[in-house]
Specification:
Helices cover 48% and strands 10% of the residues. It is an alpha/beta fold.
Length: 254
């Protein structure tokens, strides 16, 4: 919807410029400027999932507490250790898994489900080139991941998190056809880039508030190291860590 408004606004602006300023000496540069501005808006809308520019994502909950979400697993070593921490603290999280990692980690995926955590779709290939594929190819990629998850846990995920947080009109069409709900985040930890645990912890905790959806990755040692401190911070400050579906009032499986 926002993209359609941007297109209409840009076209209307160009028509008005041509009509009223066609004799203006710098007219062509004005038109180029308007087109460039449009392209910048589209690029920003594509890259920032919270803007809901192309796809209506759930980026924050309406209830008290926060939700922990982990992307890019299952990871044979890190995921299992994260599960141990969560079990010890009696915390339920949501794991957005990559389909091409499921076959080698099927038992781990089963364990995630058995221990009461939710499992979401994070595409099969998790490739940046996926975003420029046709709607048909994109749909096939997402569906393949969903089918593999269902084969292992016997449940059909409804939650989908776009790889890299990139959205396009093709994602919108594919998700609509597959009846999936895009899930974003309100806190992006950038734990895949962080080198210092204390800096990462401070960055995350200063953003935590009721309704926060925290994006982490169960593929990083630093995430494993900082997780107990995040949990402890929430305990000290009376912040409940709740399952994602409870935070957003949306069921995770069809």
């Amino acid at each position: 919807m926002k993209h359609n408004i941007a297109i209409i606004t840009t076209c209307a602006t160009l028509i008005l410029l041509v009509f009223f300023l066609h004799e203006f000496i710098y007219m062509k540069w004005v038109i180029i400027g308007v087109i460039l501005l449009f392209l910048i808006i589209v690029a920003i809308g594509t890259s920032f999932i919270q803007l809901n520019y192309f796809v209506e994502s759930i980026n924050k909950g309406n209830n008290k507490g926060i939700a922990l979400t982990f992307d890019d697993g299952p990871h044979a070593a890190i995921t299992s250790q994260i599960l141990a921490i969560l079990e010890k603290e009696n915390i339920k999280a949501t794991f957005f898994v990559i389909g091409n990692k499921i076959e080698k980690n099927a038992a781990l995926l089963k364990k995630i489900d058995t221990e009461g955590h939710n499992i979401g779709n994070h595409s099969f290939s998790h490739n940046k080139l996926t975003t420029i594929r046709s709607t048909k190819k994109l749909k096939e990629d997402i569906l393949k991941c969903n089918q593999l998850i269902e084969q292992v846990i016997g449940k059909k995920p409804v939650f989908f998190r776009p790889p890299f947080g990139i959205t396009t009109p093709r994602y919108k069409r594919a998700l609509k056809q597959l009846n999936l709900q895009s899930i974003g985040w309100s806190i992006r930890s950038f734990d895949t880039q962080s080198k210092n645990k204390e800096v990462l912890l401070k960055k995350i905790t200063k953003q935590i508030a009721d309704g926060s959806i925290l994006l982490l990755h169960d593929t990083q040692q630093i995430t494993l190291d900082v997780l107990p401190d995040i949990i402890q911070f929430c305990k000290i400050n009376g912040i409940n860590i709740v399952p994602l579906h409870e935070l957003i009032n949306y069921q995770p499986y069809a």
